[in-house]
Design goal:
single chain, alpha+beta, Alpha-Beta Plaits, four-stranded antiparallel beta sheet, 7 helices, 9 strands, GvpL/GvpF family gas vesicle protein, gas vesicle, GvpL/GvpF
Length: 264
């Protein structure tokens, strides 16, 4: 008889009590805490019809299923992070039986233990800078009088866009210098396309910062002050998250953790 499959969300130190009220895993119930040799895995039993190797490969091509699974995964990690330091695991980390979960903890012990010590009391903040699209010019009352007039208008629009990009780049560099003094570490991620992020404007900076929890308010206030300095440039701060970008966690296949915005 095959052993049950367990979906593992994160690794934490054993702690007293249960996960926060209201958090639900993929099975509809609170995640279970499987303790092994001083480490603890937050996990849920899941059906083989969805999470065995072949059906899981098919599901990973279904964007709606993937999004729903990612939301449940991140909700559990966020809930755990509100009460303890959590090392997120890669989306769709699945083990066979509780023995498989314990083997996962053993395989990753050399990375889990130092990561828990290093990240305890710290959270991740995401900081993005966007160059906003220039406001459209009022519709002219008449067509351009000449080809030269048309080219002049087009050149003016291009110069305005280039100016916004230069300002966004300068603000990004200034912002990174300022934030580095209030964070313990920085990770730069690839800028996201507007089609994926759904945000207006062009993403110029996509960074993550590891910040002591007690300094979070100061960090956010500093980032937001920078965001008000330049017209046409927007700063977006998200978090606090579990330290996805800094965990260096492993999954059942030895891979790393995915980030909250899918780019980590």
């Amino acid at each position: 008889m095959n052993e049950a499959l367990w979906y593992v969300y994160a690794v934490v130190r054993p702690f007293e009590g249960a996960p926060p009220d209201g958090v639900r895993g993929l099975d509809g119930g609170p995640p279970r805490l499987i303790v092994h040799r001083g480490l603890c895995a937050a996990a849920s039993p899941v059906p083989a019809g969805d999470f065995d190797a072949a059906p899981l490969r098919a599901h990973l091509e279904d964007l709606d299923w993937l999004a729903a699974t990612a939301r449940a995964h991140q909700a559990v990690v966020a809930a755990l992070s509100s009460v303890t330091c959590a090392i997120p695991l890669r989306l769709a980390t699945v083990c066979r039986g509780t023995g498989g979960v314990r083997r996962l903890l053993d395989a990753g012990r050399a990375r889990f233990v130092p990561a828990l010590e290093r990240l305890d009391g710290r959270v991740e903040w995401g900081v993005k800078v966007y160059a906003e699209a220039s406001a459209p010019e009022p519709a002219p009352r008449a067509k351009p009088a000449s080809g030269r007039e048309y080219l002049r208008r087009r050149l003016g629009q291009r110069q305005a866009r280039d100016d916004t990009w230069r300002q966004a780049g300068a603000l990004s560099r200034s912002l990174r210098r300022a934030l580095s003094g209030h964070a313990e570490a920085e990770r730069l991620h690839r800028p996201q396309s507007a089609r994926i992020s759904g945000q207006p404007g062009e993403n110029v900076l996509n960074a993550a910062y590891l910040v002591p929890r007690e300094r979070s308010a100061e960090f956010v206030a500093l980032a937001e002050r920078h965001g008000s300095r330049v017209a046409g440039v927007r700063v977006e701060v998200t978090g606090p998250w579990a330290p996805y970008s800094f965990a260096g966690a492993v999954d059942a296949d030895g891979g790393g953790a995915d980030g909250p915005d899918g780019s980590r």
